[in-house]
Design goal:
Blueprint lengths: L8 H10 L1 H14 L8 H13 L4 H18 L7 H15 L17 E6 L6 H14 L4 E6 L4 H14 L3 E2 L7 H15 L3 E6 L6 H18 L6 E7 L4 H13 L4 E5 L9 H9 L3 E5 L7 E3 L2 H8 L3
Parallel strand pairs: 1-4, 1-5, 2-3, 2-4, 5-6, 6-7
Antiparallel strand pairs: 7-8
Helix pairs in contact: 2-3, 3-4, 4-11, 5-12, 6-7, 8-9, 9-10, 10-11
Amino acid sequence: MGFFNIFSKEKKEKLDEGLDKTKQSFFSKLTRAIGGKSTVDAEVLDNLEEILVTSDVGVDTTLRIIGKIEDRIAKDKYLGTSELNKVLREEVAGLLEENNTGDYDKFTIPEQDDPYVIMVVGVNGVGKTTTIGKLAHQLKQQGKSVMLGASDTFRAAAVDQLKIWASRVGVPIVEQGMDADPASVAFDTLQSAKAKGADVVIVDTAGRLHNKVNLMNELSKIKNVMKKVIPDAPHEILLVLDGSTGQNAYEQAKQFSLATEINALAITKLDGTAKGGVVIGISDQFKIPVKYIGVGEGMEDLQVFNKYEFVDSLFKE
């Protein structure tokens, strides 16, 4: 029984399946760590710390979780190993609650007069274009009119891939081809979306620039031209991270957070990895809400991130 039964049975099963590698890896290690012990002692906590770190929860977040468990032991004077999974579930859910992440149960955007603008950032290869396509599909399914902007003009493949997704989903796209000025594409996209009364604009941006200064300058330029069309755009800057890269995802989150004001995360490819702990650690360390997770290749396999269902799937024995 989950915390809340707000997900459809099909989506919950897909989430369970997507997190299976992480869960199997975690529980096999946890079983070995508490083998033969009835209470959670210093040795069990040391082993648990190692398990969390190797599950890519991250050192700082791991130490927070261990500290919270130690506080509970000090308060209750006793914690049986049989209760450890339940306690972990509660503490991880508590961390996600603190970071205001995972409060979503469906794909929604705020109601407003101007189009809602999502600027998508992230390095090449993390599933950025695929995430944009799947997000456009999900929003269209909710009855929203969506327009895409191909501002990743450094790679011909990026523009072509986005055009394929636009055709597959059945939404319009604004593009000027490779080597066009990314800010110019963004400007034209927003003008077109505003003129046509679109509900949502999703703008792709370059995933690889020569250095952090270039990245910062390019993203700033794109944002500034957007504001000329819609003063409070972009409303959302969505960073896409590949969950299977573990610690690499932390570094990417750090660099993009320094370059621009990220206010939402999408973590992809969780179905192919045992590193699902990155969702917990990145949310905790960067204080940026995880909004979407990818748990498969299908069009429907981008899910809104709900902390209760995530924790329920991850710690289900």
